[in-house]
Amino acid sequence: MDFEPFQYMRYAKRLEYADGIFMAGSGMSPPKPELLTFDPDDFSLTSLCSNYGDPRNVAWLAEKYKCGGERIVLSAGSSSANWLVYACQLSPGDKVIIETPGYPQFFSLASLVGAEVLKLPRKAENGFLPDVDQLKSMLDDSVRMVVLTNLHNPSMAFMPRPLMQQIVDACAKVGALVLVDEVYIDHMKPGDDYSAFELGDNVAVTSSLTKVYGLSGLRFGWSAAPERLASRMLDLIDVVDPELPTVAQNLAHRALENLPRLRAHARRLHEQNWPVVREWLDTRPELAPFNPPGGITVWFDLKGIDETGNLATVCRNDYGVLVVPGEYFQSGGWLRVGYKIEPVTLRQGLERLGRAIDDFRSHH
Fold first, then answer.
1. Same domain, 266 and 249
2. Smallest Cα–Cα separation from 196: which of 143, 146, 125?
3. Tens of pLDDT along 6-27?
4. Pick from 206, 235, 257: which residue ends a domain?
């Protein structure tokens, strides 16, 4: 089988255990145990059901998305949920429209199922929002799916509800599914967010407890999808992943009960650390950043630099700071920098990053 490797994931996994100030991550660190109130019984190897996940979790998500439980599919993280949607929605030769810059998994998944990729630009000059007229010009009966993120990865731009509604309606006219990865949406202030799932019968959304909640070790993800698609996804689960980890389901149930506290913690981290990053950026007029409404990463263009892979190597090897080059998001000359670390270390990391950029410019 031939497919496009997920090179960013290989890079990220290696970097996570490297020496240096880690500013390459986009997910929260694990929460303190007192925020979760785990019970000894949560670590039992039995649960209400592990075949398709704990029914308490299905019920919680069904209430969240205001739908029946038959439209909820639990998975091993949002990455697995995205794969299930791709595999059950697309066939070889189908067209899929994918945002760019975009999360590289979406392109790898398309190659895995043999779909043809059409790229939908999300441009800096438009606040990283897609152009609906451009999307409409790309849509026809051969387009089976449009893939978006909200918040947008890598920029963390927020897609306003009216704009998302226009996209959903345009796709419905040609019978295309809209897949929205919402794994970062809870970084928004409660009340400012929404789920695209409520905007049409042709929408599937995916998410997990990883990026906002710091519980990547649970591998607890999900999709809310049209009923026919959700049923097909369960058919595929029967083939490739017949039982979900019991302990993870138990712990996820406890986490879901405590999400408001965990979400507030993530929001406070953004509000605490973003001003530190903004202050540093204001001293670097050669950088063109996007101001994120939430999250723990910033995405910026390095004016006059067209390639940042070598810069990231200089950052790591010579200055001990770990960042993500824009090439992994189809954007040479950009960097994604995380700021989840405590403020003193964050300032040290930004100072090192600035020196690395100056060094790199002086030699290129």
1. no
2. 146
3. 889 898 888 888 899 999 999 9
4. 257
Helix axes 259-282, 343-362, angle to 10 degrees: 40
**Helix or strand run (H / E) with residue 21:** strand 21-22
Kindly give the interhelix angle for 227-240 and 77-89, rounded to the nearest 10 degrees: 110
CA distance 161 to 194: 7
336's enclosing H/E stretch is strand 334-338
Residue 21, CB-side half-sphere exposure with 13 Å CA sphere: 23
- Please answer whether residues 180 and 152 qualify as being in contact, where contact means their C-beta atoms are separated by less than 8 angstroms: no
- Which stretches of the chain score pLDDT less than 70? 47-50
Distances (CA, A) of 136 to 101, 161, 165, 318: 19, 18, 13, 47
The answer to whether residue 183 is domain-embedded is yes
Q: CA 45, CA 244: separation in Å to the nearest integer?
A: 11
Residue 15 confidence (pLDDT): 82
338, β-bridge pairs: 297
Q: CA 80 to CA 86: how far, in whole Å?
A: 10
The DSSP letter of residue 196 is G
Q: How many other CB atoms sit within 10 Å of the CB of residue 131?
A: 14
- Give residue 19's identity as a one-letter amino acid code: D
The pLDDT of residue 43: 82
At 340, is the secondary structure helix, strand, or coil? coil
The answer to whether 34 and 216 have CB atoms below 8 angstroms apart is no
Any idea which residue has 């090179």 for tokens?
Answer: 7
Asked whether residue 304 is domain-assigned, the answer is yes
Instruction: Let me know if residue 34 belongs to a domain.
Output: no
Distance (Å, rounded) from C-alpha 22 to C-alpha 323?
A: 7
Q: CA-CA distance, 320 to 352, in Å (whole number)? A: 8
